[in-house]
Amino acid sequence: MPTYTVHAVNVGSFALGETDKVLTMFSAERGIIRAVAKGARKPGSKIAGRADVLNVNKLLLATGKTFEIITQAENLETFPNVRKDLNRLSYCLYYAELTNHFGLGLADESASYFDFLCDSLRAQGKGDIDAGSLCLVFALKFLEWLGYQPELDCCVVCRDVLTEYRIAMFHYESGGIVCERCTAEEQRTKVAEGYSKVRQTSSFVKESMHITPLVWKRLILAASDTVPTGINGNDSPAIVRATEAARRVIQTYIEYRAGKNMKSLELIGKL
Amino acid sequence: MFFTPPLAKLIEEFQKFPGVGPKSAQRMAFYVLNMNYDSVQNLAFAITDAKDKVKNCSKCFHLSSNDPCEICTSDKRDRSKICVVAEARDVIALERTREFKGSYHVLTGLISPLEGKGPEHLSIRELLNRVHDDNVEEVILAINPTIEGDATVLYLNHLLKPLGSKITRIAFGLPVGADLEYADDSTLSKALEGRREV
Ligand SMILES: [Zn+2]
Ligand SMILES: [Zn+2]
User: What ipTM did this prediction achieve?
Assistant: First the structure.
């Protein structure tokens, strides 16, 4: 049986048969791989500790029929600090969930995405920067990897340069911000067209989200920099709220692109 | 292979059991056919009787035919200590040690963020009520050190802290008789973390 070595982050798993587990992982060498961890659900199994989501392993894989088969696993990183904070853990699981969902589109750049993912998990583990801000930076970079990076500088309809006096909506379908004038125009047209105004308006609300100047500035800041400068524990409550609102806009935009809600962030809302 | 319909049906039903494949299911079905009629009736009765009578205890959610269960009603049990576990089978494992004389609380699962299984699916509200109403001194979390286990512990800690009881989590580390050299990194670091004075 031919074998090969990969370095991979576990991003998901499901049970197989009585004692096995299928791991979905993102590898530096081949992008998304699904492999069977034999006996991972057996008590005292050696592989069990390595099969948990978010673990980084060096693995020896054999080519199987449906899934690859893990023949050896050596643990490289486990991010223990992330597992001590529910917010950080939820965000890291969110990174894993996004990677699992969109990972096939990242195959060409698997090595650099693998590094980016590990760095992002490490940053959450370090704990010196607020978890939500880190997630916002991750999400914007992630969209860039996928080629969906949102337009934040110009209006997606009229292409005019945006200023803090001219922003209105983040429009999910167009993947960027619509200026105040275009938003007003759009609403006037809808009223003029006159038909089922209520339905039109409600669908427009679902396809877009209102943005304040401060939220827009947080988006610009997070998108412009790999390290979120100025986002730390000393921010004013208004900045913290705006950063969280910016994160939610991008979260919704990603969910719009994914066509489904990500489950891993649900817990944060319940705290 | 052809089986007459009632036999095929029996094989099919056995095959739904965990770990039972077609071969074992056939063996079990033929075994049943060779049993005497009384034994078969006893078996069938035992199945429906267990299903009818064994329920979750309304207090601790352990499996029992009494409600409240034997552990909840025993006067030899210390009600100021609650050991929180994920599943009823964990209670049975802990009871085997004969070490613990407190009471239990079965969560009926763990929070699994990636599967969208949230705290509302677990008996967490009931646990909080017990800790509050029974003046519980210590809540011992006997929950596996997996991602799901860690998420559940963090969430419970967040809710239990304000109630003022001592909250502990059982130690994780090397199995008895194990060799340091062959332990994996995360087990070793857990063992170091849970070290204590000798
Ligand atoms: Zn415009
Ligand atoms: Zn009980």
Answer: 0.85
